[in-house]
Write a structure and sequence with these properties.
This protein is mainly β. Helices cover 7% and strands 39% of the residues.
Length: 206
């Protein structure tokens, strides 16, 4: 069983991911951007094909980035994306993932209903099976997001499942995202998402 600790811990607990994950020691409430470290971790776990990720108990992990998809303000950053994993458990262990919400979604595109500014999706899964996410809080801070009057809802979801199967989401509170708390859809190859189960999961103010 591959266990990857997301914490300020001895490097030998990281299962060989020292090159992919920033190990930081900080107070829980310090405003630190963990986006790059989480993206690297997701990439490494995807290459390994799965495993177990255990967050530090009760810690707060901050994603302090915003996606900008069009010029001149394009920003080439990504979601925290797990791709093609079979047998992946993410134990938030009572931690909170706190996503940047204090930004403005300016009108653009057709009829001014689209915006190029979107929140980062903190848990993005594509083509994953036998997946469990449990025991934590995810806060999208949508109450801080502003938008031009014509702009429609964006894809700032808490958890995105694309073509995933045998998924268990349990003991979670996912709240204040600009999109849906949990968004489920088929993959581009028309592979549907199936056998998705939620247990003691609260989705509020999304």
């Amino acid at each position: 069983m591959r266990v990857h600790q997301v914490a300020a811990v001895a490097s030998h607990h990281l299962g060989g991911l020292e090159d992919h994950l920033e190990i930081v020691q900080r107070p829980v409430l310090r405003r630190t951007d963990d986006h790059a470290a989480l993206v690297r971790l997701a990439s490494a776990v995807s290459r390994a094909g799965g495993g177990t990720i255990r967050f530090a108990r009760g810690r707060r992990y901050r994603i302090d980035q915003v996606l900008a998809t069009r010029e001149p303000n394009r920003v080439d950053i990504g979601h925290v994306a797990f791709i093609g994993c079979n047998g992946l458990t993410i134990d938030l262990n009572g931690a909170t993932i706190d996503v940047k919400g204090d930004f403005h979604r300016a009108a653009g595109g057709r009829r001014g209903r689209q915006s190029s500014a979107h929140a980062v999706i903190p848990l993005f899964f594509e083509g994953c099976s036998n997946l469990t996410v449990r025991n934590g809080i995810m806060n999208g801070n949508a109450g801080l997001t502003t938008a031009d009057d014509s702009v429609a809802e964006g894809p700032g979801h808490g958890i995105l499942l694309i073509g995933c199967s045998r998924v268990q989401l349990e003991d979670l509170h996912i709240h204040h995202f600009t999109g849906d708390g949990v968004y489920i859809r088929a993959a581009r190859n028309r592979r549907s998402s199936r056998d998705i189960r939620l247990a003691n999961a609260r989705l509020t103010n999304n």
